[in-house]
Amino acid sequence: MAQETSCAVGPIVLLGPPGAGKGTQSKRIMEHYGVPQISTGDLLRENVVQGTDLGKAAKAVMARGQLVSDDLVCNMVRQRLLLPDTTRGYILDGFPRTAAQAGWLDALLEHELFDKRCPTRSWPIVIRLEVDYNQLLLRITGRRSCPTCGRIYNVHFQPPRTDEVCDEAHGTKLVARNDDRLEIIQPRLTAFQEQTRPVADYYQHTGRLISVNGDLPVDDVTEQIYRILEDHRA
Ligand code: AMP
Question: pTM of this prediction?
Fold first, then answer.
C-alpha cells in the first residue's frame, strides 16, 4: 500500500543535552504519529544487559559517561534503520552525537535509505531542546524509570503517586540509571558540550535546525514540537 512506503513525518532528530527531555518527548511523538523511537542510549543499554560484543565494548565507556565510538554506534543505527518499521518515519533520540555521525547519517540517507525506506527523500527535521543548566541537573538527578513499563518519572517534577513506585506497573520499584549519578553527570555534560554542539552547527549550516524552549512545562514543549512537525507536513 502506498501509505506504508511513504514518510508520515519523515526522520526526526531530537538534539539536546542529557536531561533535556528527549526521551519523554520522543515517546509522545512516537504515540502521536505512530513512528518508532530509536534511542541509541536505550539500544546500547540493551546490548550491555544482553552481553553482546557491542555491549561488552560499550559498557566501560558508558559507565564513565563518555561517548561510544562512532563506528560501533553508526553500525548499530544502520541495522536498526533497516528494520521494516521505519518506512513511515522515525525519531532519533541521542543520535547523531558527533559531527561525524551527522555526516554519516546524511550519507546513509542519500545512498541507501531514501531508496529503500523513504521515497519522498525527506531530510531529517532537527529539533534542539534548549534547557537551563541548573534545570538539567535537577532533571537528571531526579530521573527514575519503571523497569517493567518504561514510564519515566522525576522525583522533583513528576513524582509517582507512591514514593519510588510505578503508578502503572503495579508495585514495580522505580530505578535510577547508573550514569545519572552526580559524578558521571559532569563528564556526560562535557561530552555534550565538546562533541554534540558541533552537531547543532552542522544542521544549522544545512538550514535544518529548529530550536525549542525545553525549560517550558512538558506539555508546552510537546505542543511546540507538534506545531513544527505539522508545519513540515503542510
Ligand atoms: P543517553 O541515554 O542518550 O544519555 O546515552 C547514554 C550513554 O550511551 C551515553 O553517555 C554514551 O556513553 C552512549 N551513547 C548514546 N548515544 C550515543 C551516540 N550517538 N554516540 C556515542 N555514544 C552514545
Answer: 0.86
As for ligand 1, residues whose beta carbon falls within 6 Å of it are 18, 40-41, 44, 61-62, 65-68, 73, 94-95, 97, 101, 179, 188
**pLDDT by residue (tens digit) across 147-164?**
999 888 999 988 999 999
Ligand 1 centroid to Cα of residue 3, in Å, is: 33
Residue recorded with cell 522525583 = 155
Residue 148 lies in a domain: no
SS (H, E, C) 121-157: CCCCEEEEEECCHHHHHHHHHHEEECCCCCCEEECCC
- Identify the CATH number of the domain in which residue 96 sits: 3.40.50.300
Cα(43) to centroid(ligand 1), Å: 9
Number of domains in the chain: 1
Residue 191 near residue 61 (C-beta atoms within 8 A)? no
